[in-house]
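Forum: Protein Structure Q&A
Topic: Joint prediction for protein chains with partners

I've read a bunch of threads here and the consensus seems to be that you should model interacting components together rather than docking separate models afterwards. I'd like to see that in practice. Below is the full input, 490 residues plus whatever partners are listed. Could one of the regulars post the assembled result?
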Amino acid sequence: MSIISLYQAHPCNCCNMLAVCAKDRQFSKSGLTDRSHRVFQRKHALIDSGDHFAGIYVLHSGSAKAFVTAQDGTEQITAFYFPGDIIGLDGFDNQRHVQSVRFLETSSVCFFSAKEIKSLMQNSEGALSGLLKAMSHALTEDNAMLLALSNSDSEQRVAKFLLDLSKRYKARGCSDKEFILSMTRTDIANYLGMAIETVSRIFTKLQKNGIISVAHRRLQILDPIWLKACLQTSLTERLTGTTSS
Amino acid sequence: MSIISLYQAHPCNCCNMLAVCAKDRQFSKSGLTDRSHRVFQRKHALIDSGDHFAGIYVLHSGSAKAFVTAQDGTEQITAFYFPGDIIGLDGFDNQRHVQSVRFLETSSVCFFSAKEIKSLMQNSEGALSGLLKAMSHALTEDNAMLLALSNSDSEQRVAKFLLDLSKRYKARGCSDKEFILSMTRTDIANYLGMAIETVSRIFTKLQKNGIISVAHRRLQILDPIWLKACLQTSLTERLTGTTSS
DNA sequence: CGACTACTTGAGCTTTTTCAATAGCTGTGG
DNA sequence: CCACAGCTATTGAAAAAGCTCAAGTAGTCG
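Posted by a regular:
Agreed with the consensus. Here's the joint model:
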């Protein structure tokens, strides 16, 4: 029940999260009071591909990325996580993790062991349907991403990416107009399936047209309407020759 | 338990499937004996996007495709299903389906209502972990697809697609060297995120190089080794100028 | 302060798409 | 049994989108 209500609310404020984790500690009074919360630094690994599946994590603060690795070593980022997101759902299959997870900044997570999950699921109908929902939701996200990747050009992908971030920040009570990109351009490019130079160029283009303002990691969405319009048509199509200096 | 063992085994033969569905009928002797199996014709819909989530289906025979639809009406195929595959897992989130599902040929499915699933999950630990596995597996598949879409060129994608099909047919006891493509070129192109002409050109190219033989819907993999090699390097790179007539 | 990493920008090149034309297959009806 | 319509697939040529390479700038960390 705890894991799930948390997932649905996408809470950012620590109070919610702590309440949840506190509830969890009450639930299984065994010995994981100290293990249930862990803090990690930027670039550190939460999960490595191939790791044994011990349980799932709820991101408490900070942010993280998940990626899969091909035989030739190339990596593909499959998700970015923000507070309240559940990490490690890919481990139920085969009891091993397929994805690796690294933090993008100093972050903390709350751990739920497989045993805890199992008993939660069997004792609480809400928890069960909640977990199924969470996984189902992750599937939907992936599908949306697949759709975006194969049916959109670079500009549309970047626009979609920014709007997604905006939505997620808003859901967490943060500003949806101005936020810090916790991932590098390289991460963004990888996630969106394009070259880093292309990301850079599109940022520049959007900025020149007054749709966003981007300086280093700080991003502002100046014109959400136009940004949303980018999802449909390409900028150059809509502006019939603008490119003002 | 029944749904799951079936998923893991990926059985193609009807006996296995029927046994499973029979087991299921025993389990809930209510009134769904007649509703549990349904037959559909080619192009008919099993699920439309937005449909209320009633339960999940196990494909019994035939094949199907799932796709999501963007605001502008463009569709993106997200999965192909073969006997034994579970359909409809995206519905747990929001109690509505995001994906639509259409059959590629005359097919039959076995239905498990949400109620049945719930009681199965709470009474059988195996069933629970099995369902979680199935969903987790679907996530992994999606991630693999994401990886392929953004890190491979067209040739590698087509090669991967054919090898995947081959593997899935083999798992179902069918030949992994020769099979019928139940989907159109358009479907393949859509799934792989490329133009239909590109699919056609790559098929031609692979055939000219003696790697596959393709006539209409019948496909033969003549040289699996080379096809696998296509996943790594492009054909033209490996053949240092061949293009024999 | 220097090395390093992250980011931006330009130019040529490659891949893939788009457009257009053609051919083949399927099913229907005369 | 053939002809026709409609869908499916192949092929070529031109155009576009995005990638790679290369160089340079700007923050960041020790």
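Residues 153-154, 194-195, 197-198, 201, 216 of chain A lie near DNA strand D (CB under 10 Å from a C1').
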